[in-house]
Amino acid sequence: MGIKELEDFLYQETDSERWHLENEGELSRFYDKMKKVAFDSGEYYCFDFSNTLKTDTIGIVRESRYTTIPAHFHKDMELNYIYSGSCTFVIKGKEVTMKQGDLCILDSNVIHSAVSYKKYGDIVINIIFRHEFFDHLFLSKLSQKGIISSFLLDVISKNRAHNQYLIFQTQENFKVHSLIQFLLCEYFSPSQCYHELLQAYSAALFIELINTMYDAEKYRLSKKNQLFSILKYIETHYKKCSLTEIAEHFGYSPNYLSNYLKEKTGKSFIEIKISQQMAESTFLLVHSDHTINEIAEIVGCNNITYFYNKFYDTYQSTPREYRLKYRQMPEDGLCI
Prior knowledge:
The protein is α+β, with helices and mostly antiparallel strands and 336 residues long. The chain has helices spanning 3-11, 15-22, 136-143, 147-156, 174-188, 194-214, 227-237, 243-250, 254-265, 269-287, 292-298, 304-315, 319-327, and strands spanning 37-39, 42-47, 58-62, 69-74, 77-84, 86-91, 94-99, 102-106, 112-114, 123-129, 165-169.
């Protein structure tokens, strides 16, 4: 499948869409068979994507046009991409209008709905990932990049509580759109290397999203907050920076910044600094010949016992075990 064939496929009207055109304003009969469940002080539909993820850990659907989607949540991670046009969502009670090129990562258990009526040119792609898709190797390789990549990984990791979402405004990033197209072409027209290519394209997509976090001024995740600029500053200056110094740099009070970081990341300032120390230490363990004591000192941990304890709390292994394991990993195209 090439790009032209893909777009012909995406814009082709389905039986479901023809039904919606004939029954304007009515919800799909699909919801007649689905019961709402009690969740988060309310009752909502729960999408389990059992058919879409019957044999794979990744599934892709194009949302039906000429209708809306009621409030719901799901147990798997979802990535929504506005391939063309626009769509208005309500996510955790907040109305968000996304336009062509915008992308949203929705963690499991996030209440959301699509409230705008999608016209012919409004193509919304849903990519659903089981958390098992992000295997340990994938996570460990990206976790070496620093606290910004760790923040994204917290959203997709299966070892945490889930209720977060992230919106990326990537209209100017042609690489994101191209990677989405490659992923769609392979999914809807599988090749002999189907599973390997899905893994590779998805990994490349998440790595490119991490790039957008580091370039938050160009590809904004929010027009009004400075979260990723603050995280980038901590990542660069973590050895010497203090909460007071960072608050002054960004024009906040220390108390406000402390609460802001906790609200947005779920971590305190000290925990964020430790995350960066651990990320830097994993990189040095795999890519340098420094001793473990030297690495602890390089990342700013003068107490070696403290370093060992924090490392084990983060990675459930000792520094030596981590070095032995990941130095032996083959550096092929699927090990990101």
